[in-house]
Specification:
This protein has two helices and nine strands; from the N terminus they run βββαββββαββ. It is mainly beta. Strands 2-6-3-5-4-7-1-8-9 form a nine-stranded mixed beta sheet. The chain is globular. The chain starts with a strand and ends in an 8-residue tail after the last strand.
């Protein structure tokens, strides 16, 4: 059996640009890409905390340590500068790989600077 598992997440990033007429994609600070393990041109899913929009696109590299998170092309209708988003990438693993897998979780501050990393999500309390 193949399982679609969370590979990486950039949690609560702030959208810095929404470029409707730029070729579609999401530009992400290169340092955050490298830290998360998300590769340029990899499919990503974006979840907009502000308005509930959920969409997929692909990642492109912005300058390292620039703080840029730019939603481009048609997706620019789904996020605006200042919106808080979660960026996720998934990978397909077999059951044995999935049993050992730990995602890379990247947490950023309000300026999209690396705050910390983790490989586990805290259990949700009641």
């Amino acid at each position: 059996m193949q399982l679609n598992m969370l590979k990486a997440k950039i949690h609560r990033a702030t959208v810095t640009h929404a470029e409707l007429h730029y070729e579609g994609s999401c530009a992400i600070d290169g340092h955050l890409l490298d830290t998360s393990g998300i590769r340029e041109y990899e499919q990503i899913h974006i979840y907009n905390v502000n308005n509930g929009e959920r969409f997929s696109t692909y990642a492109i590299r912005a300058d390292e340590h620039s703080g840029i998170i730019s939603i481009n092309g048609a997706a620019a209708h789904r996020a605006q500068p200042g919106d808080i988003i979660i960026i996720c990438a998934y990978g397909v693993l077999d059951a044995a790989e999935a049993a050992q897998h730990q995602p890379m979780l990247v947490y950023v501050d309000p300026e999209n600077r690396l705050a910390r990393t983790s490989q586990s999500i805290p259990k949700q309390a009641a």
